[in-house]
User: Which sequence fits this backbone?
């Protein structure tokens, strides 16, 4: 006969469960090995986490660092939702040893971080600032001493303001050339310890939002022809940086880029819709990823742009298409659901219903199948070779419970489902070799300020105390087992 419980008795038992959880997170050795529903990743799979310089470093006026476009933009009234800025941010510049300890405690074996261009070249070009590079030397030594492999990003949006003032930033090919000089300088001095460099992060975001729509730094709203030229100059800057790294870095140094690919998914996975999604992926990424990975603009892209198409030379296309060693894909939300069409170019984009599920950022729709289709299709249409998921993660409503813990179950749900789909993609042949969780800790989330939290470590932005969320235990367990519950 089943035993009956009162509500008070049930609450008491539930309280015991919470108390047990609070006493210590579940470790891999507590799980009794892999369960029947566990999806394993390949041996040697790289588990990492990621941050960017402007979002965490602070110390914006220390040791010779010059101002960036985000320093100026974040101090412009009305640009940041909570009126904050990243002058101090997480104070990682002074607390980097503590933060490397967080990575170590997380169990991650790789760390993707960015180097602040204005720390190394305060004017964007010309005379370098030795103290700026010294910080990254200290960080690298600390990472390697902790057994953590560094993956360095050379541009994560913090363009030196001097270049914006002098030549219009990425509106000028002079910035493309300056970026290559900076990339070669850094690679020559850090490639003894950094074996993998990302050139540019999310060009699709900072070009459109920063130069087209006035939402991000530098806050411009350029006409279509000028915006397409900015996009071309960024792609050229990437290609020139690849060549500079090849010329200056130690033998064996690997180079790629990280892009927030326009994520296209078949609405229903029929052969016709999958083929249409491949076309859509190529065409909706034609201005950046496709030209970088093929060295050509598609005919449809040029026809659609018409008189506003970028001006370029054959030599520039050759440089843009310089061979790379890996492709980083930043995967968050599904952006386009696709069905086949008999009209050119062969696909139709479906509208999102208002009830489509989201995390607590309006743009962050929950579509785990993104982690399946995007790397599979990218590998097929571009023959990418090695792919890294260079960012994946979620903002959540990370409230501190009365017991002092942060039970971010929504983030765990998001990560678990995306990782299951990623493992499925790998099983089906996608050449994904590593995954970088965004983000290590809460930080300055660009136009949202400190109002959106993506970290697995919570940061109190008054005291700067870092506190592990429940997602730390989740990700630590995934890493230790090299598997996720399906």
Assistant:
């Amino acid at each position: 006969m089943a035993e009956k419980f009162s509500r008070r008795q049930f609450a008491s038992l539930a309280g015991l469960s919470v108390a047990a959880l609070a006493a210590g997170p579940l470790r891999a050795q507590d799980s009794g090995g892999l369960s029947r529903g566990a999806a394993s990743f390949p041996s040697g799979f790289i588990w990492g986490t990621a941050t960017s310089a402007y979002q965490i470093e602070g110390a914006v006026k220390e040791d010779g660092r010059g101002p960036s476009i985000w320093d100026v933009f974040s101090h412009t009234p009305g640009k940041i939702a909570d009126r904050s800025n990243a002058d101090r941010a997480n104070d990682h510049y002074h607390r980097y040893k503590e933060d490397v300890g967080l990575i170590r405690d997380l169990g991650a074996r790789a760390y993707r971080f960015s180097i602040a261009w204005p720390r190394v070249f305060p004017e964007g070009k010309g005379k370098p600032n030795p103290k700026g590079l010294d910080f990254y030397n200290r960080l690298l030594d600390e990472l390697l001493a902790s057994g953590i492999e560094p993956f360095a990003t050379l541009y994560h949006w913090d363009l030196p303001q001097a270049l914006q003032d002098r030549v219009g930033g990425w509106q000028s090919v002079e910035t493309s050339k300056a970026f290559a000089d900076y990339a070669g300088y850094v690679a020559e001095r850090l490639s003894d310890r950094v074996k993998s460099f990302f050139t540019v992060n999310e060009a699709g975001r900072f070009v459109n939002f920063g130069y087209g729509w006035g939402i991000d730094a530098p806050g411009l709203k350029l006409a279509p022809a000028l915006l397409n030229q900015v996009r071309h100059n960024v792609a050229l800057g990437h290609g020139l940086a690849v060549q500079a790294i090849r010329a200056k870095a130690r033998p064996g140094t690997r180079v790629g880029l990280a892009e927030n690919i326009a994520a296209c998914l078949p609405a229903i996975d029929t052969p016709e819709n999958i083929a249409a999604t491949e076309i859509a992926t190529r065409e909706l990424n034609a201005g950046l990823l496709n030209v970088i990975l093929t060295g050509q603009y598609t005919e449809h892209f040029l026809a659609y742009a018409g008189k506003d198409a970028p001006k370029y030379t054959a030599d520039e296309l050759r440089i843009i298409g310089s061979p790379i060693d890996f492709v980083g894909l930043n995967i968050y939300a599904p952006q386009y659901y696709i069905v086949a069409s008999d009209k050119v170019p062969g696909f139709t984009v479906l509208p999102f219903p208002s009830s489509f599920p989201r995390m607590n950022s309006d743009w962050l729709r929950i579509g785990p199948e993104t982690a399946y289709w995007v790397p599979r299709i990218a590998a097929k249409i571009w023959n990418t070779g090695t792919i890294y998921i260079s960012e994946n993660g979620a903002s959540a409503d990370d409230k501190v419970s009365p017991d002092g813990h942060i039970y971010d179950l929504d983030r765990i749900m998001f990560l678990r489902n995306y990782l299951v789909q990623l493992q499925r993609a790998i099983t089906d042949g996608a050449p994904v070799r590593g995954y970088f969780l965004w983000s290590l800790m809460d930080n300055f989330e660009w136009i949202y300020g400190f109002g959106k939290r993506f970290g697995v470590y919570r940061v109190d932005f008054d005291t700067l105390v870092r506190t592990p969320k429940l997602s730390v235990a989740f990700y630590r367990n995934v890493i230790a087992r090299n598997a996720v519950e399906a």
